[in-house]
Design goal:
This protein is α/β, with parallel strands linked by helices. It has twelve helices and ten strands. The protein has a six-stranded parallel beta sheet with strand order 4-3-1-2-9-10, with helices on both faces. It binds D-glutamic acid (DGL). D-glutamic acid binds next to helix 3.
Length: about 280
């Protein structure tokens, strides 16, 4: 692919947006971006060959993130990178921002701002993978939001595996949710951030367990709005047209197409395989 040729004289940039996640979870962000910015081309990488990222050491996840970012830049000439994975954002956002020649957007800052805006009583919960919660990234982002809130964080190991199996509202996942959400229920939170891109697929189960008075916030919409602002400020927006959406997976491409299409919708039509050597 030739670099830079797609930028026109009229201040629009037709290069695609690059996005990645460890698997299917980032499709929640992809959905929000496709809906909000229908003119933008998008290349999404689901690293299902190496998922899950959540239990891995952050250094290892950082290495994966840098490798995928390089792939998106070298093969697809992306104009901007969205890290549509909380674990990878927690592990690698800083380094990606320091080393890549394009703007990088993660999901943690937009999510933190959204949950702080949503709470009425200042009692906020964040749930995520072991890696994300253990990294302290949300604790820092919410601390930096400039609003005094009472924060309770809980890791939810096991949720991602249910989503990756396409099992989003079974009795088993309900039982697990009751156990894992106990700390945020006990803390009497009134706004709960789904700090893992997979969790919006479990929103019905999580909502049932938390009860109707707790607002569930997911970072997908907040990230899409932050992306629109960033594209505008950086002069990278595409303008008019109908975007083309490409999907790549490092795991089983047929499985990615079947489950991904169910989760994202008809835009996920063809899936290309990637091999990391
Ligand atoms: N999608 C990832 C996140 O948002 C979690 C999935 C995984 O553990 O790989 O943290």
């Amino acid at each position: 692919m030739r670099r830079g040729v797609t930028s026109s004289l009229h201040g629009v940039d037709a290069r695609p947006i690059g996005m990645f996640d460890s698997g299917f979870g980032g499709l929640t962000v992809a959905r929000a971006v496709i809906d909000l910015l229908p003119a933008e081309d998008l290349v999404y990488v689901g690293d299902t060959g190496r998922y899950p990222y959540g239990p891995r050491p952050l250094d290892e996840v950082r290495g994966f993130a840098l490798e995928i970012a390089r792939h998106l830049l070298d093969r697809h000439d992306v104009k901007l990178l969205v890290v549509a994975c909380n674990t990878a954002s927690a592990a690698a956002l800083e380094e990606l921002r320091e080393t890549l020649p394009v703007p990088v957007l993660g999901v943690i800052e937009p999510g933190a701002r959204a949950v702080v805006a949503a709470t009425r009583r200042g009692r906020v919960g964040v749930i995520g993978t072991l890696g994300t919660i253990g990294s302290g990234a949300y604790q820092r982002a919410i601390g930096a939001a400039g609003v005094e809130v009472d924060l309770t964080c809980a890791a939810c190991p096991g949720f991602v595996e249910f989503v990756e199996r396409g099992e989003t509202d079974s009795e088993q996942v309900h039982v697990l949710a009751e156990r894992l959400l106990a700390p945020v229920i006990d803390a009497d939170v009134d706004a709960l951030l789904l700090g893992c891109t997979h969790y919006p697929f479990l929103a019905r189960t999580i909502g049932d367990v938390m009860g109707p008075d707790v607002v569930l916030v997911d970072s997908a919409d907040a990230t899409a709005f932050a992306l629109r602002t960033l594209l505008g400020e950086a002069g990278l927006a595409r303008g008019d047209g109908e975007g083309v959406h490409r999907f790549e997976s490092s795991g089983d491409v047929d499985a990615f197409r079947t489950l991904g299409r169910r989760l994202l919708g008809p835009e996920l039509d063809h899936v290309l395989g990637i091999d990391w050597d």
